[in-house]
Amino acid sequence: MCLAVPTKIISVDGKYAYVETMGVGQKINVQLIESPMAGDFVLLHAGFAIEKIDQEEYTFLNTILNEMINDDENGTGN
Amino acid sequence: MCLAVPTKIISVDGKYAYVETMGVGQKINVQLIESPMAGDFVLLHAGFAIEKIDQEEYTFLNTILNEMINDDENGTGN
Amino acid sequence: MMKMEQEIKKTVRIMEVCGTHTQAIAKSGIRYLLPNHVKLLSGPGCPVCVTHEGYIDGAIALLAHEDVILATFGDMLKVRGTNFSLSEIKRKDSVFTVYSPEDAVTLARKYPKKTVVFLAVGFETTAPIIGATIKNVFEYGPENLLFLTALKRMEPILRFILMDEESKIDGLICPGHVASVLGGEAFRFVTEEYNLPAVVCGFEAEDMKMGVYSLLDQIDGRCPISFLNLYPRCVRNQGNPLAKEYINEVYQTEDGYWRGIGKVSDSALVLKQKYQSLDARSRFSISEEMTLKPSVCQCREIILGRKAPYECIQFGLSCTPENPLGPCMISSEGACSAHYKYGRVIF
Amino acid sequence: MMKMEQEIKKTVRIMEVCGTHTQAIAKSGIRYLLPNHVKLLSGPGCPVCVTHEGYIDGAIALLAHEDVILATFGDMLKVRGTNFSLSEIKRKDSVFTVYSPEDAVTLARKYPKKTVVFLAVGFETTAPIIGATIKNVFEYGPENLLFLTALKRMEPILRFILMDEESKIDGLICPGHVASVLGGEAFRFVTEEYNLPAVVCGFEAEDMKMGVYSLLDQIDGRCPISFLNLYPRCVRNQGNPLAKEYINEVYQTEDGYWRGIGKVSDSALVLKQKYQSLDARSRFSISEEMTLKPSVCQCREIILGRKAPYECIQFGLSCTPENPLGPCMISSEGACSAHYKYGRVIF
Amino acid sequence: MTNKIKLNHGDGGTKTNELIREIFLKSYGEEGEVCLSDSFVFTTKASKLAYTTDSFVVQPVFFRGGDIGKLAICGTLNDLATAGAKPLYVSAGFIIEEGFDIEALCQIARSMGEVCKRNGVKIVTGDTKVVEKGSADGIFINTSGIGVVSEQYSPCEIEPGDEIIITGTIAEHGTAILLDRYDLAIETNIKSDCCALSHLVSDLEIMLPYIKQMKDPTRGGVATVLNEIAEYAGFNVELLENNIPISPQVKAVNEILGIDPLYLACEGRMLLVVKKGNGSKILQLLEEFCGCREAQMIGCFTADRQKLVYMQTKIGGKRVLPSLESQTVPRIC
Amino acid sequence: MTNKIKLNHGDGGTKTNELIREIFLKSYGEEGEVCLSDSFVFTTKASKLAYTTDSFVVQPVFFRGGDIGKLAICGTLNDLATAGAKPLYVSAGFIIEEGFDIEALCQIARSMGEVCKRNGVKIVTGDTKVVEKGSADGIFINTSGIGVVSEQYSPCEIEPGDEIIITGTIAEHGTAILLDRYDLAIETNIKSDCCALSHLVSDLEIMLPYIKQMKDPTRGGVATVLNEIAEYAGFNVELLENNIPISPQVKAVNEILGIDPLYLACEGRMLLVVKKGNGSKILQLLEEFCGCREAQMIGCFTADRQKLVYMQTKIGGKRVLPSLESQTVPRIC
Ligand code: SF4
Ligand code: SF4
Ligand SMILES: [Mg+2]
Ligand SMILES: [Mg+2]
Ligand SMILES: [Mg+2]
Ligand SMILES: [Mg+2]
Ligand SMILES: [Mg+2]
Ligand SMILES: [Mg+2]
Ligand SMILES: [Mg+2]
Ligand SMILES: [Mg+2]
Ligand SMILES: [Mg+2]
Ligand SMILES: [Mg+2]
What we know:
The complex is a heterohexamer, with two copies of chain A, two copies of chain C and two copies of chain E. By secondary structure, chain A is of the alpha+beta class. Chain A has one helix and five strands. Chain A has a five-stranded antiparallel beta sheet, with no helix packed on it. In chain A, a hairpin with a 2-residue loop joins strand 2 (16-21) and strand 3. Chain C has 14 helices and eleven strands. In chain C, the strands form two sheets. Chain C has a six-stranded mixed beta sheet, sandwiched between helices. A five-stranded parallel beta sheet of chain C has the order 2-1-7-8-9. In chain C, helix 5 links the parallel strand 5 and strand 6. Chain E is an alpha+beta fold. Chain E folds into three domains: 1-36, no CATH class; 37-149, CATH 3.30.1330.10; 162-320, Alpha-Beta Complex (Phosphoribosyl-aminoimidazole Synthetase, Chain A, domain 2). Helices cover 29% and strands 25% of the residues of chain E. In chain E, strands 10-12-8-13-11-14-15 form a seven-stranded mixed beta sheet, sandwiched between helices. Chain E has a four-stranded mixed beta sheet with strand order 2-7-5-6. A two-stranded antiparallel ribbon of chain E has the order 3-4. In chain E, helix 1 crosses helix 3 and helix 2 runs parallel beside helix 3. The longest helix of chain E is centred in the first third of the chain and has 17 residues, at 102-118. The mean pLDDT of chain E is 92. Chains in contact: A-D, A-F, B-C, B-E, C-E, C-F, D-E, D-F, E-F. The B-E interface holds B 1-3, 5, 21-27, 44-46, 68-69, 72-73, 77-78 and E 185-188, 242, 248-249, 251-253, 255-256, 258, 314-316, 331-333.
């Protein structure tokens, strides 16, 4: 259980926010998030944001992931 | 309104009778008929016998009708 | 009328007032056999065609209740209410076509959680068989079967037509199967009170031929005007007493509303107080709007022989066989329908 | 993966307890990258797969009410009750698949004459979002929306598995998104109380790889056994306090029934007294038979690592992916399902 | 295989293939010979081909004298026959409601296979879709067909005097369906006349040059189909009521229910328009070689151009028969 | 003409003809040219023909990027293309629910006509049935098609090393349908890829001798259809996840809904199995002449005989892709 995808808040309107996930827009419920703000990344599960994503960690990991994938593609993967 | 066909009672069972119309059998309601009997001809309307047919008149007419039709077929018709 | 010269004849108008006669005339092709000056007119004899829009609207309103099933003779399916017919509006398994009122009983037993409403339409031929069914249901159930009546009486509508001063009818073919129930004598008033040639006749082509020629003999003065029962094999003078008893037991009369014609006093049969519990009207709040707005349909004039179909401004425009407004267009053999399909004369 | 003796190793069993981890493992093909002696097991982490037959039977029973509409996540459709699944039993427009609990609110507003029942299943990831919906509905309506809960808690089932003496699990991948809500610390007990290597990890292929290697390091003794949060970008130590508040506000715990496993104390989340009016159980008389008859399914043994799928006598006979009896066959990546489709080893 | 059709029987995956293998291929013919792939490739030396399609939605699916499967093949073979074609290949597309009985599907497929075998035709391409419960009425079948048109058959313009033949008694399919649809407790021996008429093309081969049109009077019955022909021909059709073949039981049921049998479907009869003067020879062939013992010359084209169909009635009257306008249902009026 | 379909539009009489004249003939082509009679007769010099059928039951009937009519023609043209055939004639059988909007039917018929015109194919035979309200889900369409098989195309046995090409990005039709069916308030530019691929047969003509199989990955998507090919070929298929073309938005929607795009239908893509070594040449043709700029070589056949389809994942793992087993619906797990 608990399929969730990272998404970015574009704008907030009360309990709801408009978010974008890889170019796809959606209105989601953000009432579980403390002070959601435009620019925040959140985890989206079944139409609700369930947690904020730590942006520093997120960027850091993305860098690592991309490196690992490039490594794999260069044939050094397992 | 009031499509009705002549049919012949084959057997009676209380409010109902089994009848035959040109070789086709059916169970119909005969509660509107006074003492329906096997062999009686009745007028059948929407699953009910609505009246007994006077057998003498019926036979008489049938004879006439057949004669008239034969006349027509022989070209003496209108 | 009486005696008349044979040259150019005055048009003779013979009316029948039974849908099955209408059909028999059409199917036998008898019109072709008659002299050109003899016109056969269809009066308000199809109880379905003359059923008022408000009744259909009421039946459609019942379908809004999810637990209601309608049971109806097939004839009712395509007749329109103010906007729709049952066949247009029905959901799957919400409207069942039955052959006999007893099929409605079977249906009610098959769907015990539903309320089955039987659309009780007809003249006095059908009234006793529905009456017998109502009495049976009243005594033995099932309790989930109700009746929505639009049963009509033949005598009041005949008097309505015959009383019209401008009526141009020269002879009447009385409805054979209504007479089977009510008796041949029930139609003697046509001749005795209105001095109109009238015959009770059967439904075979030969019956019809015999009836028309017998009327022409009277109209043309070859025989005296008299009321004749030409259908004695099925019509006793006093009719079927048991069937009449059922009518009296179950129904009382009330003013009736006729499509394209309007209100006709005492022309409806409705359930007596004793059987109210089986009346769909008292169980559901059906307001059959008896449309007091003037009907646009000119059938009354057409049936009375005063107007031709093409003189009605609805004809062919808002009124077509596919989308009929009045009884003359609803019945496939009605004057308007026939005129629409074949033009004035074809043979 | 670091240095390790390459000879024949003792089998290492790593369990994950989140359906999305199951999927991620399958989709990433990570098994192929691991040494042969490392087995990835799927624990009872798909809340749908472990939903008890009685719950499905109860939902199906609701469909007997003509005015009930069920709203459900798509996952629930093909899971069987005692005899049928919702997808087999549903009539047209009686069961709607929704993406979010808020869609059930929309549905209820769209069908004001119907009662919409939302099948509230999930672990603590889903519980707060359903809780928020319940609170919203409690405060603002609509009044025709009810909730039939089968919400489950992760901690009790983990303890149930870990307490088993014969448990053969060597490491645990904790459910990342439950941890997002409850906090990473919520799973520290696995290591502290049961001395089992455990990591919280994310769902990307690289997350999974990192998680497995980190556990192997601990299992193989290259690192000390310790509890690690490898998913800090989405998992705070204390989780999401607002989400936890909603859980506490709306639910209380109760014993829960798990398909193929049985009763697990305090493992269910049910509505508090305050929200009873929104509970489908209290509105309808649903008797979820918590089937005390011994379950034929051996999933418990399989999940605990005691048996192989083919050792279950139902396997491939009365239990197939098309007609699954237990969670291991229901989930398309469950041990029984995988074994059925691909045999023991394919690569 | 469970005993009810499920949605995944129609999703193109494992279960669909199972259905094709276990039911369709087994029922349609010599197993393994036919391969129901997406497209069937064939070679032919025939230069003139006929092509047709029809969908079948009959209710009930099983009726006295046949089922929707038999009907679906016969209907398409008969439409090919109207073009003077002997059938070659047939396609079969199923739309099945979730929950439909698999045993019933087998029976339907077997019916299809039987008719095909008897007529030397093969089902070579097919498709199966399953829709949600409540989204269809049990089962619908579409068939299309390809046939080789006889060199002898070259329909030409209809002229006044051309004769009209029907190859057997009318309204039997329509009456059978009415009896079963309304579940009428009427005892009869009536069965649908549903059968393939492909043999007519060979049996009548020597007379084909004198046949100007063939048409199977299905939906709308003899009356409606003759209206179509009259419209196309540009002349009136005159029928003789006395000549129209109808079984007494069919006549009785139609009178009881207030239905006109001229508007009820035949599914195993052909209307032939025959060059003036050739009717009796063809009638003789039909009776002697085709087993059409009830075949009748029922009328002819007249010189009038209103494009009407009318009937000389038994009593010598005339009755116009327009196209079918509304459903045929049991009536009381 | 009223604005809703009634039962009598399907009874074969006056109203049916009105529908054919007013809607189908007008939409399908040059008015009057095509005559939708029961059987269509044609002559052909081609000796090798392809024949196919499919029924279409898509819900909703109108979706982003097309409608059931466009789909019904494209689907059949594409099945003909899989046989290396250029389309000649198409049949169209409608099953319509009483009450269906006539304007919607017009729009559907127009879509059909447009695709036909653009591909030089004619609808030559048809059928219309109307079923009671509640007995069908709006409208179902069956099409069948006949095409002339290119002399250049002669599919032969698949061998290890043979390459697999997809002509464009995957899962666009399936994703469009999901978005519309579940009325998901997700903003995207996604449209169904629904289009006819008949041109591939001509555009790739010089390379047809090196193409061993063509198949359009419709129901069940790329994964299911490759399983069918693997089963038939007798070898394993190895795919490369990195090579599978998918648009970012389609990927995003599928992740949000928990659906695997490899199991979602394409309706305007073709899978080509190409003789080992010819993949890049064909890819070049596809990109340069057919406008298939997203075409990709996505994998090849291996020598293993388990008839499995598996994928080299981005991280170098391997994942088996079985045939579709159950419906694709939005999930949370
Ligand atoms: S045309 Fe229509 S509205 Fe006018 S009289 Fe006739 S039925 Fe009535
Ligand atoms: S084969 Fe079926 S019954 Fe046996 S353990 Fe697996 S899921 Fe349970
Ligand atoms: Mg009468
Ligand atoms: Mg989780
Ligand atoms: Mg196909
Ligand atoms: Mg046909
Ligand atoms: Mg197909
Ligand atoms: Mg035909
Ligand atoms: Mg056809
Ligand atoms: Mg296809
Ligand atoms: Mg295909
Ligand atoms: Mg047809």
